[in-house]
Amino acid sequence: MKVCIIPARGGSKRIPGKNLKPFIGQPIIAYAINVAKQSGLFDRIIVSTDSEEIAAVATEYGAEVPFIRPSDIANDHATTLDVIKHAIEWLNDHDQSRIEAVCCLYATVPFTRTSDLEEGLALLQSEGTKYTFASTRFSFPIQRSIRMTEEGNVEMFWPEHFSTRSQDLEPAYHDAGMFYWGTPTAFVSGLPIFAPHSKSVQIPHFRVQDIDEPDDWLRAEMLYEILSKRGEL
Q1: Strand 131-137 relative to strand 198-202, pairing
Q2: CA 174 to CA 159: how far, in whole Å?
Q3: 102 burial level (CB within 10 Å; 0-12, 13-18, 19+)
Q4: In degrees to the nearest 10, what's the CA dihedral of 12, 15, 20, 26?
Q5: Measured in Å, how far apart are the chain's first and last C-alpha atoms?
Q6: Which residues of the chain form beta strands (DSSP E)?
Q7: Beta strands, E only, 49-182
Q8: What are the tens digits of pLDDT across the range 87-120?
Q9: Are 66 and 1 in contact (CB under 8 A)?
Q10: For residue 103, what are the contacts with CB-CB under 8 A and spacing of at least 6?
Q11: Distance of alpha carbon 95 from its chain centroid, rounded?
């Protein structure tokens, strides 16, 4: 059995009601549910939430909400791994099917394609791999990044690279914040994700946008409309 778990907590301080906020005509969580359904990869698509309102909307769009998330993992300090571990353990207690793979798909990911999820699963099935996740390349060489001092001045993190050509510096990547595929054992044991036992699906810059602040939301909507018109989504 392959399971998609979508974490969707009710409380959101920076963007109130974030997981249900309308995004280009429908609640943003609907995009995650829809891409999971359209992929055809999952036997169960489960939303883990502490909110009855989110549960009702998630069910309306075709996801399952077989439990309400306990309060001790529904606060600002709960981690994604805590939430996924709880969902896996609940499934182990209530479903006799053996879980082969789990995908944690974030609720605010309107730029995720079914092909991204397919590639993530294919990579997970390679020998020795415990997790796969979406990543993207930093647009500027991190080796030439700067910091601000307490005095208000600037200094380089790596001054030895002041004169190094950009094309001669090793590319660096970061988590795109879309999804994590993993084995159930890896999730339950709390195995770290960013480690040699993991592989990544590389996502182009134009499909990566964190949505944490109101400005992010506005930019994401404009980007989504442009990409939709270009047939990129």
Answers
A1: parallel
A2: 22
A3: buried
A4: -160
A5: 27
A6: 2-7, 22-23, 26-27, 44-48, 101-105, 131-137, 146-148, 154-156, 173-182, 198-202
A7: 101-105, 131-137, 146-148, 154-156, 173-182
A8: 999 999 999 899 999 999 999 999 999 999 999 9
A9: no
A10: 2, 3, 4, 5, 36, 41, 42, 117, 120, 121, 179, 180, 181, 182
A11: 25
8 A C-beta contact, residue 32 and residue 20 = no
Q: How far apart are CA 149 and CA 153, in angstroms?
A: 5
Tell me what the pLDDT averaged over the chain comes to: 95
Place 11 in a pLDDT band, splitting at 50, 70 and 90: confident
The pLDDT of residue 12: 78
Backbone angles phi, psi at 98, to 5 degrees: -75, 130
Please check the confidence at residue 13 and state whether its pLDDT lies above 90: no
Distance in angstroms (rounded) separating the CA atoms of residues 79 and 85: 10
pLDDT digits (tens, 9 = 90+) for 148-175: 999 999 999 999 999 999 999 999 999 9
Q: Are 178 and 109 in contact (CB under 8 A)?
A: yes
Burial class (CB in 10 A: 0-12, 13-18, 19+), 147: exposed
Partners of 185 in the β-ladder: none
Residue 81: name the closest of 109, 63, 102 by CA.
102
C-alpha span between 182 and 211 (Å, rounded) = 24
Q: Which residues on adjacent β-strands are paired with residue 190?
A: none
Tokens, residue 16: 């109130």
Question: Distance of alpha carbon 214 from its chain centroid, rounded?
Answer: 19
